[in-house]
# Entry
Amino acid sequence: MKNLNEEKKRRSLYFFIFITLVPVIGVIVIFSYAFLYVNYEIDFVTHESMGLKVIEQIEKTIFDIQKFRGLKCIKILNKESIENIEVFKKNISNDLTNLQQILLSIKEDTPLRSELLQYTDKVKSTSLEDKEYEDFTHTINEFMLLSNRVAYHYKLILDSDLISYVLIDNVVYIIPELIEYSGRIRAIASGISDNFLTGEQKEQIIIQQDKINERLYRLNYNKLFMYEEVDKDLLTQSHKSIIETQRIVMELINNVLLKNDKVTVEPNNIYTLITKDINSIIDLYHSNLNLLSKNLENKLKKKRELSLLIFFIGLIFVIFIIYINRVFYNKNREYIDKIEELTITDSMTSLYNRRYFDEIFDVFLKTHQRRKQISVFIILDIDYFKQYNDTYGHQAGDIAIKMVAKYLKESLKRAGDMVFRLGGEEFGILCRVQSKSQALIFADEIRKRVENEKIEHKKSSVGKYLTISMGIIIEPKNINNITDIYRCADEALYRAKNEGRNRVVVYESETFC
# Structure
């Protein structure tokens, strides 16, 4: 009996330990998961804030370079412009130094951070006085590209909060692009010689106007989302200021710069007027930036409070916390999937992808037909690419695709020209040219450049180096849909392959397609 009682006591003790430890362990596991999950979110927002700080300094540098570029384009500077040149030279130097200090303060040593530091050093080491309009524009484009990469690296573009996402879209993409296109108009208009704008200068101004109108549309569209959640007074004044100054600038452009052959406004005054417009856009940029920073700070504060709350919350809320976290995770995943779905670039080559090609093609064609410009569609692929992959491996094949993509992108000469990766080793180019012969020269230069790189391809029947074949359709007046145009260009490419590859073939007859 004694042994039986001891056995019962032992079993009772074991059961007590079991029913005590299991909930305790369960609570520890569940609350540990919740605590770690929230801390991951804290790290996420902290990471975003650091990225936003880098982007803010990059954009400040860009804004000063844009102003300096505009002044450098003026042929005869007045006293105020000369003084401003010196001010902006000093500002740009300080901007670059501050950007380097911010980057050096980041403990995470990444390739992007190193690239940013190297490029900043490169810009600092070159004389601003020796730069031309194209040099400044290239520098600005490089900084904008790096800013976009920072947004991805620091996961700003993946923010699951709608208002923060819209603000990020404004701060990282729309408003900086709007400022840059306005800055290009300022530089072109301020660079007039003998009160006369050339046809090419007018054409460039019209192109920038179209881009500005598209960005303003997107900005107003985003504003609708923000006004549903934030105080209207925060951004209304900045938007009104932009609308008014844009109206004045558009009147200047349409009635003074584009309407008459002779420009009656002095270049320094043109610079001042358009700068006023750009400054109003910069004010809106800062309004969005401050609101975004505030949003991230509030989000970070809330996450930290939630972390403490989770730590002290009782067992009664365990199921509720699991449910809320699951709902939040699913919602977060939906936003990320939606954002990733909207991307328009090919991840391997950073070129536009087939999805964007299908979207933009009709707009591109109609725009050039309306302006009576010669539009060109080129389709090309790498000769005997399967044999290349089989011989050198898929990794080498990917490198070859990236190199060809790089050459194609570097070959584009005009604003509005676009290159796409259509799939596998197949690429497409949409561009405009002055003549049909220029289109042939342009395509053949690309073909020769690839061949002259002398990338070994010992299994090619064309030669011992990697080559490409190209099919072109020029000014497709009687063909108005993407399917037929694509088929015609593809037929030209097919003929190029049949005729021996490593060549350019132009579609010329209706019967051929």
